[in-house]
Amino acid sequence: MSNKHKILDAILEQGMLPLFYQDSEAGSVEILRTLYNSGVRVFEYTNRGKSALPNFKKLKEIRDAEMPDLYLGIGTIKTPADAHAFIDAGTDFIVAPIVNPAVAEIANKIGMLWIPGCMTPTEISVAQEHKAMLIKIFPANILGPEFISSIKDLFAGQLFMPTGGVEIDADNLKTWFKAGVCAVGMGSKLISKDVMSKGLYEELAENTKLALDLIKQSK
């Protein structure tokens, strides 16, 4: 089995892809450790600030030393230059908020999992043309579970993951999985501004375990 398929299977098994960005290197490391110790084995750091690349390199160093069974990916990759920079830094997979065929080509050439963000059926079709195995539905809080229910038959067999506004709530999660998603992206609803600014790592650990448990019940 290729690494691409192993990572995809890990996302499907976990049912959740946590994601965040923080300027602080030390804070980013503590959040990564907290997520890992709470059961997370696939994680996305997001390229949303000036410290993203150096912080990612530090996270990769920590992952290699302490968490060899963790898949560490990079999100918010919109350009080929960003893709090359983080591939060189050792990312395991790439997540994007858009469909950029040039980024898809880079990932496909090296057999790397590329998860593009889509908002319309046309974008989904373009993503499929560029071999997207998993498609991020973004922003999920705007589109809602009804969007998945409405389009899933048009794209039979395609795997979808909503990101943006997914709640740590049994009813919310059940609605998404019933609509036909295979996993959910979990950002600020899990790793909130308070968690990052106040170092609320015990709260993060509790919420991560709760989210993973609720997702198991919802799938």
From TrEMBL:
Pfam families, per the entry: Aldolase (PF01081)
Matching InterPro entries: Aldlse_KDPG_KHG (IPR000887), Aldolase_TIM (IPR013785)
Keywords for the protein's UniProt record, in alphabetical order: Carbohydrate metabolism, Lyase
Metabolic or biological pathway, per its Swiss-Prot or TrEMBL entry: Carbohydrate acid metabolism
A GO molecular function held by the record: lyase activity
Keyword Lyase: yes
Family: Belongs to the KHG/KDPG aldolase family.
Self-association state and partner proteins as the record states: Homotrimer.
Protein name in UniProt: Bifunctional 4-hydroxy-2-oxoglutarate aldolase/2-dehydro-3-deoxy-phosphogluconate aldolase
